[in-house]
Amino acid sequence: MDGPERYFMPGDDEIFDPAKFTLIFIDSDSVTNVTSLNRVNKRRVLIFIGNGEGLISFGKGKSDDYESAFDNAFKKMRNNLVCLSLSHTHTTPGTLTGRHNDFRIKLWSQWQAHYYGNPTIWHMLLNTGLHNSRFTCWSRNREPYSMIYGYFIAVTQNTTLEEIARTQGKKPFVHAYVNRSVNPFNYNSWEAKTEHRPATSHY
Fold first, then answer.
1. DSSP string, 172-185
2. Residue 129, phi-psi category: left (phi > 0), alpha (psi -120 to 50), beta (remainder)
3. C-alpha–C-alpha distance, residues 16 and 25, integer Å
4. pLDDT tens-digit profile of 135-193?
5. CATH number for the domain formed by residue range(s) 4-83
6. CATH fold of 96-182, please?
């Protein structure tokens, strides 16, 4: 490979398929460092990558031109790989919150995904693998770097249903979704207990 993706190839002690990842180009801009002698212009890029199974990363690169900045972003993305605790049957069992500077994000557990909102965030959620959630974000300014930092702070708190049940001393099926109105398996309610009660035999 001759492109920047050569920096993302797995090493001898790593196991992942680069072909399963989806790359999201988040932002590119130009920054200027003003000194007493000169103005130094740099190009900057921000990218996100995920395989939809809990393995995600982001990279930011800066250089004199966009091509070199993209190469540096791929190098940083390789170092920022994060593997989330993820269960495919219940991807988001709890509430997740993240904040960086002015940006705030909150994810709620929900049986059916509701991705209405920031298109960049719901694309990242899809490629992260969080399919049982809805989200809300607040920010007065459009700052993509605060957005990506706050997003990673939130999703790295994710855990599995089994881990939550183990810490609470409950069975995994007893833990209900936060949004009860859309949870067809809410065993915390009396109606759900009577509706899903197993049949018993008197013989």
1. GGGPPPS-GGG-TT
2. left
3. 21
4. 999 988 888 999 999 999 999 999 888 887 778 777 766 665 544 444 444 444 333 33
5. 3.30.160.20
6. Ribosomal Protein S5; domain 2 (3.30.230)
